[in-house]
């Protein structure tokens, strides 16, 4: 059984108090009996008491107050560092916020350097069995611009940015040196990524694999690529989310305050409303895929996505938005073929640039694992449940809160949020029978 693998193991989890990290730790501690999990804490203020109790009262959890940066010390005492090196079997690097507006130079210090330093450190652990790096499925979003298809297939593999004759690992190191020195790289300038963040993750993946190859430990490295992360379907409870953890919630808040009758978006699809898609995946699917693939020994890249069967058309997505607006709204989506960086697009489309695209992310590795598990996967959330109509009703509290922030940022009257958005209770106050 999957959970048996973790019994007696020592895990080191970064980002343990974040959106993914919290769900991951809760799942581990509620289903298995690891010898020790080392992470960080702020759960009492973000979870209902019964859920937080599993984390805050666990005797298996050690909280480390550290800070990832460009050194391997993480601001931890030397004694703690040596203890980690001696005892840890599994390292899960889940610490990283989605920073779509940051420059590549900023991301070098917030994404790439910490990931590289932690990789270097973890690969020296004598008892290391698995190193897990959380990336993003949109690390390869530049493929949209290099393809003529209206539905771009993305496999669970690395897509080199240079020529076939280039040394794959050397090019990653060369590009990393360029980024550190100039804040950019030749390969980044030559490819149209939607955000610097996507390239930062693309390069970080390659750097992690380069270090693993250098030490002959490629078989120990697992790269998890979530798509657009959404609230949980089931674990730790239906609708579990953090305020800034679900991008679609922020998009909904901004669109609901839009005062006009048209919202301009970019797409090359002939029928964008039907053909363009949003791959939003519940956070508990991301967590279970990661933990299952660690347990069965998968290496390389794995997509944690809703996939071709579970993704949403833009029309489905948009209908859910409109249902949450208090005042009837006949705004129309106006599609243009202009570049996804065009200043003529709606401000949220310029930020959330994948609206209007469609990616068919491969799920082959998870499908194969699910087939092998057979009946033993009944308690696992390996695939998104799309049996119910897509809805944002469990996000009303967060949408309203973010709408207030959006109004303040744009110097609009605060009552806009109250006038346009439905004000719901936090999901933690809705009772145990709530449905996602």
List keywords for this structure.
single chain; 436 residues; alpha/beta; seven-stranded parallel beta sheet; two-stranded parallel ribbon
Taking Cα atoms only, what radius of gyration do you get, to the nearest Å? Answer: 21 Å
- Indicate the mean pLDDT: 90
User: What's the shape?
Assistant: globular
Helical residue percent? 25-40%
Describe this structure in a few short sentences.
This protein is of the alpha/beta class and 436 residues long. 39% of the residues lie in helices and 13% in strands.
Describe it for me?
It is built from 17 helices and 15 strands. With 436 residues, it is an alpha/beta fold. The strands form five sheets. Strands 3-2-1-4-5-7-12 form a seven-stranded parallel β-sheet, sandwiched between helices. The chain has a two-stranded parallel sheet with strand order 6-15. α1 packs across α2. The longest helix is centred in the first third of the chain and has 19 residues. The radius of gyration is 21 Å and the shape is globular. 47% of the residues are buried.
List the helices and strands and how they pair.
Layout: E1 10-14, H1 19-31, E2 36-39, H2 49-56, E3 61-63, H3 78-87, E4 90-93, H4 104-122, E5 130-134, H5 143-146, E6 152-154, H6 168-182, H7 186-190, H8 196-214, E7 221-226, E8 228-230, H9 247-256, E9 262-266, H10 272-275, E10 277-278, E11 280-282, H11 283-296, E12 300-304, H12 307-310, E13 312-313, H13 314-323, E14 332-336, H14 347-351, E15 359-361, H15 364-373, H16 396-409, H17 415-420
Parallel strand pairs: 1-2, 1-4, 2-3, 4-5, 5-7, 6-15, 7-12, 8-11, 9-14
Antiparallel strand pairs: 10-13
């Amino acid at each position: 059984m999957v959970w048996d693998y973790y019994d007696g193991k020592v895990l080191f989890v970064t980002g343990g108090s974040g959106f993914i990290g919290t769900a991951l730790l809760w799942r581990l501690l509620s289903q298995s009996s690891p010898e020790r999990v080392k992470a960080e804490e702020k759960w009492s203020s973000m979870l209902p008491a019964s859920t937080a109790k599993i984390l805050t009262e666990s005797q298996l959890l050690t909280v480390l107050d550290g800070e990832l940066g460009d050194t391997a010390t993480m601001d931890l005492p030397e004694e703690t560092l040596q203890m980690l090196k001696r005892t840890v079997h599994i390292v899960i690097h889940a610490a990283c916020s989605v920073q779509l507006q940051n420059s590549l130079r900023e991301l070098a210090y917030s994404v790439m350097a910490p990931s590289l330093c932690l990789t270097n450190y973890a690969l020296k652990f004598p008892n290391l069995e698995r190193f897990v790096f959380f990336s993003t499925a949109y690390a390869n979003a530049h493929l949209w611009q290099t393809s003529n298809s209206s539905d771009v297939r993305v496999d669970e593999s690395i897509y080199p940015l240079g020529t076939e004759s280039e040394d794959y690992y050397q090019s990653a190191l060369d590009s990393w040196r360029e980024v550190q020195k100039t804040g950019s790289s030749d390969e980044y300038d030559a490819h149209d990524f939607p955000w610097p963040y996507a390239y930062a993750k693309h390069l970080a993946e390659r750097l992690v694999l380069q270090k693993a190859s250098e030490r002959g430990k490629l078989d120990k490295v697992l790269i998890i690529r979530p798509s657009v992360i959404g609230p949980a379907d089931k674990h730790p409870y239906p609708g579990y989310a953090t305020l800034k953890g679900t991008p679609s919630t922020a998009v909904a808040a901004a669109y609901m305050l839009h005062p006009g009758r048209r919202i301009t978006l970019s797409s090359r699809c002939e029928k964008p409303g039907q053909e363009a898609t949003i791959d939003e995946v519940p956070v508990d699917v991301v967590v279970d895929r990661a933990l299952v693939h660690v347990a069965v020994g998968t290496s390389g890249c794995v997509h944690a996505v809703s996939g071709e069967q579970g993704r949403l058309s833009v029309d489905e997505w948009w209908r859910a938005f409109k249902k949450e607006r208090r005042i009837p709204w006949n705004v129309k989506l106006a599609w243009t073929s202009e570049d996804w960086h065009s200043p003529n697009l709606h401000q949220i489309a310029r930020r959330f640039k994948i609206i209007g695209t469609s990616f068919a992310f491969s799920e082959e590795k998870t499908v194969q694992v699910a087939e092998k598990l057979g009946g033993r996967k009944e308690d696992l959330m390996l695939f998104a449940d799309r049996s119910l109509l897509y809805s944002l009703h469990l996000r009303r509290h967060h949408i309203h809160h973010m709408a207030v922030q959006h109004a303040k940022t744009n110097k609009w009257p605060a009552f806009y949020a109250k006038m346009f958005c439905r004000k719901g209770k936090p999901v933690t106050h809705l009772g145990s029978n709530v449905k996602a």
